[in-house]
Design goal:
Elements: H1 15-24, H2 27-43, H3 48-69, H4 76-84, H5 100-116, H6 128-140, H7 151-175, H8 182-207, H9 210-215, H10 228-248, H11 253-271, H12 274-294, H13 297-332, H14 342-355, H15 384-413, H16 417-432, H17 442-459, H18 466-485
Helix pairs in contact: 2-3, 2-4, 2-8, 3-4, 3-5, 4-8, 4-17, 6-7, 6-15, 7-17, 8-10, 8-11, 8-17, 10-11, 10-12, 10-16, 12-16, 14-15
Length: 486
């Protein structure tokens, strides 16, 4: 029977729906998604177009179902992230428009959700205003620039880097159940997302898939949806969350999480990404040291024993296969940390900034090397600071600085173990993004970042800015005035 109470949490409040909802928060939910995604991705190596369309359509319909079934939209996040990993090829088929049908279902599901699961106190969240300012900086980017540019980069950049993640964040702030421990849920999402990528990376090496080898130019791993640097970037976010879960979860399962964390760090080596490996190594060292201190005393002995076992296994593997391992590392660093053309890119970025220092050259800027323009039309300078400085000028740098301040404010306002592990991920991801494109990747990176911080803001019930409250009060007053006039 439908409940009409304002606090209703399910479309139908009965035992079946409650069990379905409970499943969404169990490890089995993630475990069930992984084989499906790997299957769609694997079959996609044979029939890329059909499998991509079928896989994306099913995932979109699942998202719509979750949005309708219950108030809490957090289980949508793993679906949104895992969808990327079923893409077998970076080239979408001409009939990809078919997925617009299930996408429309999501739109109607979202509208239904906002109508049916009404809320009294709408929240903006701490990241709303910084994200809006960032959006304005993107839209202003390129004003006055006479250098060649296309609007595609600016429009899609604004959509994928700001608008889409901001929408997900706003829905989460207002429709996520704080009692479901959203920070822990996001950590589990990261863990299983990283494990999914490990499985696909393992398949790449074991079966030596010719199509994927061709995509990678026979030099670096390519999984269809991402090249080595992209894959490694995600691991820099996922593996610290495995260690966090180890400190939070009791029982033998926590050691499984710890093992997966070590596997995900090892997978960074398998990607052959030099920059990610260097920053990841620093991040890993800090993470294992931090974990030794924050884990409770009873568990610390088990943690140290686990670490000793891992070291012994590594020593045995090194003794047996040291020639292959050294050969692999020589292959990774064969060019002795050559800049791979980055210094020339950085000079170009600085030239753009000094020529147009206020608003930059815009995200749609067409640079010297056309191969550096990504699929959404952004010229990648491979450095966060130089990217925003060149494309958005001083206005963009100030906007992104404020956004980083807001994120760190969330981390430090209610200090906990989760805060520590966010900082661990921050070291690796943001450090590597000074050499790569991490912070400029719209989907799914922008959604991952905003939810990693947003989930903690929700769980710790942090108060949003007084400015937001005053805006809401004025909106409510205006609504009452309109009703009285009517």
């Amino acid at each position: 029977m439908l409940t009409r109470a304002l606090e209703k949490n399910y479309i139908i409040d009965n035992m079946v729906v409650r069990k379905i909802s409970s499943f969404f928060y169990s490890d089995y939910y993630f475990i069930a998604l992984i084989p499906f995604v790997v299957l769609m991705w694997g079959l996609g190596q044979i029939a890329a177009g059909p499998m991509a369309v079928i896989g994306i359509s099913i995932m979109l319909l699942l998202i719509a179902a979750v949005v309708v079934i219950q108030r809490d939209i957090m289980p949508v996040v793993p679906l949104a992230l895992f969808t990327m990993c079923l893409m077998p090829n970076p080239n979408l088929p001409s009939y990809i428009w078919v997925v617009a049908i299930p996408a429309v279902c999501i739109v109607f599901a979202a509208l239904f959700h906002m109508y049916y699961y009404k809320i009294d106190d709408f929240k903006f969240g701490k990241l709303f205003f910084p994200m809006v300012l960032f959006l304005i900086a993107i839209l202003l980017g390129g004003i006055g620039s006479k250098l060649p540019s296309r609007p595609k980069g600016m429009l899609l950049g604004a959509l994928l880097i700001v608008i889409a993640p901001l929408f997900v964040y706003m829905m989460a702030i207002n429709y996520v159940d704080v009692d479901k421990k959203p920070a822990t849920y996001i950590a589990k999402t990261m863990l299983y997302w990283g494990f999914l990528m490990c499985i696909e990376l393992g398949i790449f090496y074991v079966f030596d898939i010719e199509i994927l080898r061709a995509l990678g130019g026979y030099n670096v791993p390519h999984l269809g949806w991402g090249i080595s640097n992209t894959i490694a970037t995600f691991f820099l976010i996922t593996f610290p969350m495995c260690f966090y879960l180890f400190t939070q979860i009791k029982g033998k399962l926590s050691y499984m999480y710890l093992l997966i964390g070590n596997i995900e760090f090892g997978a960074i080596i398998a990607t052959t990404s030099r920059g990610a490996l260097l920053f990841g190594a620093v991040e890993f060292i800090f993470t294992i040291i931090v974990t030794a201190f924050v884990v409770d005393r009873k568990k610390r002995i088990g943690y140290l024993i686990f670490a000793a076992v891992i070291l012994v296994i590594c020593a045995i593997v090194l003794a047996i296969s040291h020639e292959r391992i050294f050969t692999f590392f020589r292959y990774i660093f064969q060019d002795n940390l050559n800049d791979s053309g980055r210094f020339e890119l950085y000079r170009e970025a600085l030239a753009c900034f000094f020529e147009y220092p206020i608003f930059g050259v815009g995200l749609g800027y067409l640079g010297k090397a056309t191969n550096l323009i990504d699929t959404i039309g952004i010229y990648m300078f491979h450095d966060t600071i130089l990217q925003y400085g060149a494309c958005l000028g001083v206005v963009g740098i100030l906007a992104i600085a404020y956004l980083y301040f807001a994120r760190l404010e969330i981390v430090f306002e209610n200090w906990s173990n989760y805060s520590l592990y966010i900082l661990m991920a921050f070291i690796g991801f943001e450090g590597y993004s000074l050499l790569n494109t991490g912070t400029m990747q719209g989907y799914p990176t922008a959604i991952v970042l905003i939810m990693v911080y947003g989930a903690y803001e929700i769980e710790t019930k942090q108060q949003e800015s007084i400015v937001y409250k005053k805006i809401l009060e004025k909106i409510k007053i205006n609504k009452k005035a309109i009703k009285n006039i009517a």
